[in-house]
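Hypothesis: this fold can be encoded by more than one sequence.
Test: take the structure tokens below, design a sequence, compare later.
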């Protein structure tokens, strides 16, 4: 039997009350990130997996830097890389979670099920998807990468970027929880209080991160698909979100 994080029933009443207090953007277009603060409770397996993955990230980044120094070539750092994650536009205004899960699984497995299927697996409602269950669903449907949920403090942008880089280099898109504002992600024209996307590339020369975004804000064709954004903007959007979390 699959073990999943449980969403307490008592949270339902508090969700209704909280929704009345939150800004209107929480329920606005493009959201799909459930605003309930439901913590990620790691299993023993997840704790061990995270420690091992952190070791791999440190080793990977260190080896790249040492190779660059020994060869005297900046290019050896691997400043640019993209992976071909397919884009699936979210089928409802609150299905960014199911669409992103579909994108990641389709890339890793070469096939995927419907957004409706993943919405059911994630327990997505009209309030959106609880981000802390996304790693469980990804791990239930592929065996290439054991995804874990991690948060970062405000002084840990380099660690955030290193995880994204390690994932792209190994063919594992990371999943990000973002609070988007045009001030730091200018391809967006309006704020989005909570949005779930995956990474698909990095360019440290131009200091950008590419995300596979399932949302076409304003039907302009600007935000949808594999789109580059300022690396600092992605970091700020992640830090602005109350979870400050990523799944990698």
């Amino acid at each position: 039997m699959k073990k999943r994080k449980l969403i307490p029933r008592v949270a339902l009443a508090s969700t209704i009350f909280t929704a009345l207090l939150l800004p209107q953007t929480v329920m606005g277009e493009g959201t799909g990130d459930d605003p309930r603060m439901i913590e990620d409770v790691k299993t023993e397996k997840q704790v061990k997996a995270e420690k091992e993955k952190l070791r791999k990230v440190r080793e990977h980044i260190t080896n790249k830097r040492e190779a660059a120094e020994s060869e005297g070539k900046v290019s050896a750092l691997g400043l640019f890389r993209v992976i071909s994650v397919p884009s699936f536009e979210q089928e409802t205004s609150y299905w960014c979670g199911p669409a992103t899960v579909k994108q990641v699984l389709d890339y890793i497995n070469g096939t995927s099920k419907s957004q409706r299927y993943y919405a059911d697996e994630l327990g997505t409602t009209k309030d959106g998807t609880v981000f802390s269950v996304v790693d469980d669903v990804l791990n239930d449907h592929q065996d290439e990468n054991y995804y874990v949920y991690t948060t970062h403090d405000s002084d840990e942008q380099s660690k955030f970027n290193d995880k994204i880089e390690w994932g792209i280099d190994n063919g594992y898109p990371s999943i990000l929880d973002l609070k988007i504002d045009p001030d730091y992600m200018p391809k967006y024209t309006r704020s989005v209080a909570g949005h779930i996307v995956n990474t698909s590339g990095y360019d440290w020369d131009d200091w950008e991160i590419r995300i596979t975004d399932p949302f076409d804000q304003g039907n302009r064709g600007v935000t949808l698909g594999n789109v580059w954004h300022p690396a600092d903007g992605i970091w700020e959007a992640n830090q602005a979100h109350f979870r400050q979390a990523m799944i990698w």
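The first strand starts at residue 80 and ends at 82. The chain has one domain: 29-247.
Hypothesis status: open.
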